[in-house]
Amino acid sequence: MRILLVEDDVQTALLIEDGLARSAHAVVRVETGAQAVDAAGRERFELAILDRMLPDMDGLAVLDGWRSAGIRMPVLMLTALGSVADRVRGLEVGADDYLVKPFAMDELLARIGALNRRSARDEPPTHYQVGDLTLDLLLRRVRRGNRDVHLQPREFDLLAQLMRNAGQPVTRKMFLASVWGIHFDPNTNIVDSHISRLRSKLRQRGPDPIETLQGVGYRLRVDA
Amino acid sequence: MPKVRRSAAYRLAFGYTALCALAVLVTGLGVYYAASALLRQDFDRAIVQEMASLEREYGEGGRPDLIDALTRHTGRTGNGFRYALFDPAGQSVLRQATLLRASPGWGETQREGSDRPWHARFLAVRLRGGETLIVAADTRDLDRLRDRLFGLLAAGFVLILGLGAAGTLLFGRHLRRRLEAISSTAEVIMAGDLTHRISVGPSGDEFDRAGESLNLMLDRIAQLVENLRQVSSDVAHDLRTPLQRLRGAVELGLNGPQQITALRSALEKAQVQSEAALALFEAVLRICEVEAGGARQRFEPIELGQLAASMCEMYGPALEDGGRTVLCVNGDPVMVRGDRELLVQLVTNLLDNAALHTPPGTTVTVSTRAGAAGAELVVADTGPGVPEADRDRIVRRFVRLNHGRTTKGHGLGLNLVAAIAAAHGGRIAVEDNKPGLRVTLSLPLAQAGGPGRDAPANK
């Protein structure tokens, strides 16, 4: 994937570039808001990682410039401003995701994967099919093979998030945000307990389709 | 003297005295002129009456009777009038005190220099027979009375000016002294001594009351400064611990055996510690964010029971995996206004605490109700609880009971809970659940009949 990285801190930028390169993404890095507006106008990128605080302008202004110029690539905003109000503003201006510094590289890569999948589709789907699993978002029904799997509402949401990103890691933070709508880390590991219940229900109908990625999160096997 | 001119106290007192003096001057002059007019009127009336009685005599018996009456009146004891009568040809018939013939009407005459100086006012009347009668009276008594009145008023005025000036100086000095006590205290405090206070007298006057208010304000400021100092030293201490361990892990990795496994384990330790430092930092920022306010803009109507139910559902599996039981008890719907994410964080922290500080087998109950005092959300457990002496303390920052090395958490959980409660106009109470701990969040009920939903102003 061709990614535009807008980050003025060289050390941070090098770490991100390194991580993206290891995941086989092609990165173009610029350091200022003006360069960012310029670069996105000249070439096509599939995704942008945009730092909120740039030396010449606010990242939000850069994003605003892109959006009003009709540049519609998904944008992941990076920021040291982590307050609720900051996040709300960032999403209002049109960021597709918002990641507060410091973050783990795995978290960033997982978010990029999710954003890429989301933007690849024009319309939100009504159902997912991965291996022998089918999930119907309208009927809120899950089937494995040809038998129903009865899930609690949150278990259903967790599975939907996994299936939406099938084959890609989904981090605990992503689950917390998409399933429960919270943007902080509780001390208690609530995600793991819910996943383990989901897992045992799915295993009644076949082998475990969910992989645990140590220290990162979970991934749905595509070959399940 | 320029000091005096710049002093508001003196200016005030001087201004007041000047105004008083002006008022006294105007009143004095008024009294003086009114009194002199009255005296002059009385004087003239007496002359007119005398003239009338003489004219009556003339009317009854002509010139002889008039001359008779004049002689009689002159001989009367205490008679202050002087008379003159001139025949129609202008020849003097009777003349006292060198009065000259004058045309009819009022006039004044005086005699200077001689052994008997006088100053008189007279009335001349042409009688029916053509004679001219003049009645005069000495005005020196009247003038003396007027002068005395003027002198008294002037003396009074000067006295008032003097008293006013003295009062001004005293009042100004008093005002200055009282105000300087306050400003000198302020200067000492600005120089860094926050313990200094304005001395308050026993009289309880306005200055004492102002001093008391200022002292209370200083107490509050000192408390805040102390709080800040405490927090920064706590943050420094609690942040240094994980950073120290992080540094230790890195050093261990660098100096220890250069094997992949040893290096990996050192790096893992370093990562755990950096995350602990970040979590602490995050919590501090979060508390600052909540305490700075501004959350109110995102307030929306929230049904507390629903929120509690979803929290139970969220935490249920994790608490059950730890061998605990979760109960959710909700009565009638309880509407409050609040920031959903902050309230979720509040309950999260309470449930985190329950998960962290109670043994397996504990029952955790989350309940909501609308009481007389407002909405209540209670998180209660049947764990070991907290000794009474510590219950108020644990709400403060960085307080961890049994300060063991293995105790998890950064000690800011309940402090954030209290901050969120305060940001919603509510409070928390930490009580004994007999056995266990019970934390009650009280919030104001959303007003019934108010706006049911916030207008989506920023969409």
3D architecture notes:
The complex is a heterodimer of chains A (224) and B (459). Chain A is α/β, with parallel strands linked by helices. Chain A folds into two domains: 2-120, Response regulator (Rossmann fold, 3-Layer(aba) Sandwich); 127-220, Winged helix-like DNA-binding domain superfamily/Winged helix DNA-binding domain (Arc Repressor Mutant, subunit A), CATH 1.10.10.10. Helix content of chain A is 42%, strand content 22%. Chain A has helices at residues 10-22, 33-42, 59-68, 84-93, 105-120, 153-164, 172-180, 190-203, and strands at 2-6, 26-30, 47-51, 75-79, 97-100, 127-130, 133-136, 141-144, 147-149, 169-171, 210-213, 217-220. In chain A, the strands form three sheets. In chain A, strands 2-1-3-4-5 form a five-stranded parallel beta sheet, sandwiched between helices. In chain A, helix 2 (33-42) packs parallel to helix 3 (59-68), helix 6 packs across helix 7 and helix 6 (153-164) crosses helix 8 (190-203). Chain B is α+β, with helices and mostly antiparallel strands and 459 residues long. Chain B folds into three domains: 2-148, Beta-Lactamase (2-Layer Sandwich); 206-289, Helix Hairpins (Orthogonal Bundle); 297-443, Heat Shock Protein 90 (2-Layer Sandwich). Helices cover 56% and strands 16% of the residues of chain B. Chain B contains nine helices and twelve strands. Chain B has helices at 2-6, 8-75, 140-190, 206-255, 260-291, 304-321, 340-357, 388-391, 413-423; strands at residues 81-86, 92-95, 105-111, 118-126, 132-138, 300-303, 325-330, 335-338, 363-370, 375-381, 427-432, 437-443. In chain B, the strands form three sheets. In chain B, strands 2-1-5-4-3 form a five-stranded antiparallel beta sheet. In chain B, a hairpin with a 4-residue loop joins strand 11 (427-432) and strand 12 (437-443). In chain B, helix 2 (8-75) runs antiparallel to helix 3, helix 6 (304-321) runs parallel beside helix 7 (340-357) and helix 7 packs antiparallel against helix 9. The two termini of chain B are 66 Å apart. Mean pLDDT of chain B is 82; it is low at 403-407 and 449-459. At the A-B interface, helix 4 and helix 8 of A face helix 5, helix 6 and helix 7 of B.
